[in-house]
Design goal:
The complex is a heterodimer. Chain A is of the alpha/beta class. Chain A has three domains: 185 residues, FAD/NAD(P)-binding domain; 133 residues, FAD/NAD(P)-binding domain, CATH 3.50.50.60; 82 residues, Immunoglobulin-like (Sandwich), CATH 2.60.40. Chain A contains nine helices and 26 strands. In chain B, the strands form five sheets. In chain B, strands 1, 2, 9, 10, 11, 12, 19 and 20 form an eight-stranded mixed β-sheet that branches. In chain B, strands 13, 15, 16, 17 and 18 form a five-stranded antiparallel β-sheet that branches. Classes of the chains: A alpha/beta, B alpha+beta.
Chain lengths: 419, 476
């Protein structure tokens, strides 16, 4: 078997992997290689033809393909090696990657450091165990987006969408513009899953009804979806009898969450965080295995691609330093512990040596609160926190000095005025 | 029009097993199936268990054919190149008062002739299944239980029957059967009329309707729906044997099944139903299944479910298989009421049907060129790395991985289509593409396009499983 030596190997060529590869190459790594399963770079971005990308990073309103192209151009300028239609079969802790493609067959890459940037996948019907029959016409929102925007086919004409995640909202508008009738968007939670701007621009502007605290209680149809029954749910998420509505449709789209794709990470032995579903990382985005870094939706599912790219920058830079033998391993790591109303925190570990931005996801929406770190280290007022939006908080050097005496720090959301 | 010696109605595991068993003789044989592919009825929803045989009452056809079927499986699966794993089973008693039932079933099994039955308890039991609940008192171990893929088996049986000259007509629902003076004349499908001397009713769920077309029906089917849930492969190590509960009811209860493909499957339930089209799953049954299996293995969690399905067992009201020639219409043979252990018994049922046909006057002359072995195609994921590399060099299409979760290459999808897959489900059952944790999210659009290309049809014409189950509706 052929063995190829590289400084930094990046697994995944979506927004995280592209940013990581660019940062690694700019950071001095000589040979950087991106491995990706698709025919093109950019991950999911090429099918996201709507706008709203890059507002933070470029201060511009770009479409998905435009956003991706900025990075792809840079990858070309930097002469970063790209292996497309290449499937990574496994990654070993000693940073050896086994991969396959039609051109080279099976080959091994021996890397100075590895960046995991595999992104995430959509939760399927099976994972939800939605009651009813199993006709055709049930697909995830991302697959529907692929059919319409990349392949040029309309998956259905009378649509119900379960879940109000961003892809579902975007697809409600997209399908309407393509002449389909979106009959309802159904959300089990009392609040929408996607960004507020998407709720307004994709549903309200098109008079698409949004049913909150509702879910699908039955899928009807033998060959093709014929209808769904929706029902209101109580706090335990059980159907409330008598609240059922029968909606005639030929297609059910699912936008019910994304799962970080960590099969390769866990088989390599990378430790995962049960809250994020991704690797436990420190602020350099190093995983529990030295020299293996991770960034983007493989670490946790982000709301904005800008955050994903930012994390790619960090992972790429440090992966390059590691490969060049210049990355100082931290003396110790302080554990961040999710406290009240915190769903997850990234990074989960910090060295306390450098300024660090922490990404925070809350569990439930709350108004007039404070984000609190430890006892008297940091408190920031937040008028509104929402599970569908990532909060960021940057720790200054002064705050880090206070942290340094501790082994672990609890991060929580507290009511304003409360101590 | 040429008259067939034998016409088989039904392309499930029973119909195809009969077709294959008859294909070793000099006969002209046709099999008609109402779905667009074989195995698309009850067989695709079968649990895939080759039962050891202690469950069935001595003296029944179920006990007799179940036991003889079980021992035929090693040779059968070897010939057909279908994976079979003899993983054994444990029937678990959770209460002291259930220990008597274990003893009783052991005696019943031994009367049936089941070898190797043993009561295990304590340390020995936990060594066999470390994740069993600590409440378990003892278990009846049956080493002879095996698991197999029911659709892979059905497809292989049909392929091998076709290799040996059997004609298989798909999408051919029987509309009418006419007989004259107590002798069969012809069977009508939408493809036209088929003449036959002998007619086998292996129509499963629809066997009552077929029988009524021939004569005053003398049996009633009893339909019981079962729901099953498939768990992610990462839970595969939780149990090593099929785990049976003590069931007081007519079924074998809710089981934990390590499938031959390396998933765990939990189920089935058993709900009497009337409507033959009722293949829906429900929250209540899922809850029942979870509650029951967690009493046996507490670590099983609903979070690991990746797929669910339901199937209908078409048993007979009298509770045993009905395999008999008609007294009124010569040449008509019912093979009906085949519920559990139907898959186990399938090869023995096929042999019994051959014997009945012979007694009924069909001349059986062995073929010289009978070919009992059928080869499966290359399963890319099962090969060692070096072999994978060699294959990609030979044909680049092996290097194009279509299904990421199950590592299925483009070449395997093409081979499945060459061998008869016409639908997305047909490709799935033959290759496992789309059966992994993402449930076809990534690969379905690509497989639909390969199907369209290889079959020379439009993308909009590709279906999930025939009829109007199209995947996309219009081109933009």
């Amino acid at each position: 078997m052929r063995i190829q030596k590289v400084d930094v190997a990046v697994v995944g060529g979506g927004p995280a992997g592209l940013a990581a590869a660019i940062a690694a190459s700019s950071g001095g790594a000589e040979k950087v290689t991106i491995l990706d399963r698709n025919k093109t770079l950019g991950g999911i971005l090429p099918q996201c033809i709507h706008n709203g990308f890059g507002l933070h990073r470029f201060k511009e309103d770009l479409t998905g393909p435009e956003y991706a192209q900025r990075f792809i151009d840079r990858v070309e300028e930097l002469k970063i090696e790209v292996k497309l239609e290449t499937m990574v079969l496994n990654i070993r802790p000693e940073k050896k990657i086994l991969a396959i493609n039609a051109k080279e067959g099976i080959f091994e890459i021996e890397a100075g450091s590895v960046v995991l940037a595999m992104g995430c996948r959509e939760r399927s019907r099976g994972a939800l165990s939605i009651p009813g029959t199993r006709p055709s016409g049930i697909l995830t929102a991302g697959v529907a987006q692929q059919w319409i925007n990349l392949e040029g086919y309309l998956p259905g004409k009378r649509i119900v969408i379960l879940g109000s995640g961003d892809i579902g909202l975007i697809m409600a508008r997209r399908l309407t513009l393509e002449g389909a009738e979106v009959k309802a968007v159904v959300e089990i939670m009392p609040y929408p899953g996607g960004l507020t701007r998407n709720v307004v621009q994709c549903l309200y502007d098109f008079d698409i009804p949004l049913f909150l605290e509702h879910t699908i209680s039955f899928i009807h149809g033998k060959d093709r979806v014929e209808a769904v029954t929706i029902a209101r749910v109580n706090e335990e998420k059980e159907f409330i009898p008598g609240t059922e509505k029968f909606i005639d449709c030929d297609t059910l789209l699912l936008s019910v969450g994304l799962i970080p794709e960590n099969e390769l990470s866990s088989s390599a032995g990378v430790r995962l965080d049960p809250f994020t579903g991704g690797p436990v990382v420190d602020e350099r985005r190093q995983t529990s295995l030295e020299g293996i870094f991770a960034c983007g939706n493989v670490v946790q599912v982000y709301d904005l691609v800008d955050h994903v790219s930012l994390e790619g920058d960090i992972a790429g830079k440090n992966a390059a330093l590691y490969a060049l033998g210049k990355l100082k391993q931290p003396k110790r790591l302080i554990k961040l512990i999710p406290g009240r109303n915190i769903h997850s925190l990234v990074p989960q570990l910090i060295s306390g040596e450098d300024m660090t931005t922490i990404f925070v996801r809350v569990k439930t929406p709350e108004k007039s609160v404070k984000l609190k770190m430890g006892q008297g280290i940091k408190e920031v007022k937040k008028p509104l926190v929402n599970p569908n939006q990532t909060l960021t908080s940057t720790l200054s050097l002064k705050e880090l000095v206070l942290l340094n005496a501790l082994d672990e720090v609890e991060v929580s959301i507290i009511k304003e005025g409360r101590e | 029009m040429r008259t067939n010696n034998v016409l088989i109605i039904g392309g499930g595991v029973i119909g195809t097993a009969i077709a294959r068993a008859l294909s070793r003789y000099e006969l002209s044989i046709t099999l008609v199936e109402k779905e667009v592919e074989v195995g698309f009825g009850a067989s695709k929803a079968n649990s895939g268990i080759i039962h050891p045989g202690f469950h069935d009452q001595p003296g029944t056809l179920k006990a007799k054919l179940g036991l003889s079927g079980n021992v035929m499986y090693d040779k059968l699966c070897k010939e057909l190149d279908v994976p079979l794993k003899r993983i054994g089973s444990l029937l678990v008693a959770l209460k002291e008062e259930e220990l008597g039932i274990l003893e009783k079933l052991k005696v019943q099994g031994e009367l049936n002739g089941v070898p190797g039955l043993k009561i295990v308890k304590g340390e020995a039991l936990f060594q066999m299944e470390p994740n069993l609940t600590k409440k378990v008192k003892a278990a009846l171990y049956a080493p002879g239980l095996a698991v197999v893929s029911p659709y892979e088996l059905t497809i292989a049986l049909a392929e091998n029957a076709q290799q040996n000259g059997v004609k298989v007509i798909l999408d051919a629902e029987v509309k009418n059967i006419s007989s004259v003076n107590g002798a069969l004349k012809r069977v009508e499908t939408k493809h036209g009329f088929i003449l036959t001397d002998y007619l086998i009713n292996a129509a499963g769920l629809f066997a009552d309707e077929i029988a009524s077309m021939v004569e005053a029906r003398n049996f009633t089917l009893l339909l019981r729906k079962g729901e099953e849930y498939i768990l992610d492969k990462k839970t595969a190590d939780l149990v090593k044997h099929v785990i049976f509960p003590i069931s007081q009811k007519e079924t074998k209860g809710v089981l934990i099944i390590p499938t031959v493909d390396g998933n765990l499957m939990i189920g089935p339930t058993a709900k009497r139903i009337e409507k033959k089209s009722d293949l829906s799953t429900s929250r209540e049954d899922l809850q029942v299944i979870l509650n029951r299996v967690r009493k046996l293995v507490p670590q099983i969690s609903s979070e690991n479910i990746i797929a669910s399905f339901a199937g209908i067992r078409a048993g007979s009201e009298k509770g045993d298989f009905i395999i008999t020639p008609s007294k009124k219409v010569k040449g008509f043979i019912n093979v009906v009421g085949i519920d559990s252990p139907g898959l186990t018994a399938a090869p023995a049922i096929a042999q019994m049907v051959v014997d009945i046909l012979s007694q009924e006057g069909l001349k059986l002359r062995k073929k010289r060129d009978y070919q009992p072995s059928r080869k499966k195609w290359i399963r890319f994921r099962e090969l060692p790395s070096r072999e994978k590399g060699r294959l990609v060099k030979k044909d680049k299409r092996y290097g194009n991985i279509i299904c990421r979760c199950e590592t299925v290459s483009e070449m395997e999808v093409i081979e499945a289509i060459k061998r008869g897959a016409r639908t997305l489900d047909g490709v799935k059952f033959r290759t496992r593409a789309g059966m992994g944790r993402c449930q076809g999210g990534f690969c379905a659009p690509r497989i639909v396009q390969i199907l369209a290309r290889e079959l020379g049809i439009k993308v909009e014409e590709v279906t999930k499983r025939g009829r109007k189950s199209n995947i996309v509706l219009t081109k933009k």
